């Protein structure tokens, strides 16, 4: 950890999740833990639970630092506070620039269960980036979908498939279409697979340019 890093109350901190940034601030600093306000992005709160692994960006004057940590607990002290473990390693941070583009395609997914049974179902992708994607899943399978559960995802691209592991980091309901809209963060992605995803994103962007369509 850089020697000049001191976590201070009221300092700005963000949680990076699925290539989106949820703003928060430090409410309390202890010997081993840091208390932060509920992270929020454009009015949408990020639900965090004990044991969740998260990536944080800490703002110290004009410098940004990043660290990985875990949620220890949640509590109420005038406001709702998420308690995270104080990091042992902090690095200087450069914000990633994974572009999110529209990507409507039928894909396959399977919830990873404790008994490792694989049962692939159909879903529709809505967008994709180098770090995650958004899926529309039939509501009738909603009992199998929970915040934090992990999926195997198969994306057909031309005559090949990209197989990924993802974690559900957001869930909302589209009652009109009876769909669950799930934000997925890719996890345990090897370099070769990441490059395939980014190449797919770039190809979509190039196609948008050719058609004169502006991406997200």
Describe it:
The mean pLDDT is 86. It is built from one helix and 15 strands; from the N terminus they run E-E-E-E-E-E-E-E-E-E-E-E-E-E-E-H. Strand 4 (40-41) and strand 5 (44-45) form a beta hairpin. The protein has 216 residues and is mainly beta.
Layout of secondary structure:
Blueprint: E1 12-17, E2 20-29, E3 33-37, E4 40-41, E5 44-45, E6 53-60, E7 63-77, E8 79-85, E9 91-92, E10 101-111, E11 121-128, E12 132-138, E13 150-157, E14 160-174, E15 179-187, H1 191-211
Antiparallel strand pairs: 1-2, 1-6, 2-3, 3-8, 4-5, 6-7, 7-8, 7-9, 10-11, 10-13, 11-12, 12-15, 13-14, 14-15
Which features does this protein show?
single chain; 216 residues; mainly beta; 6-stranded antiparallel barrel; 15 strands; 10% helix
Biggest sheet strand order reads 1-2-3-8-7-6
- First-last Cα distance: 36 Å
Quick one: overall form? globular
Q: Which residue ranges are poorly predicted, with pLDDT under 50 across at least 5 consecutive positions?
A: none
Quick overview of this protein structure:
10% of the residues lie in helices and 53% in strands.
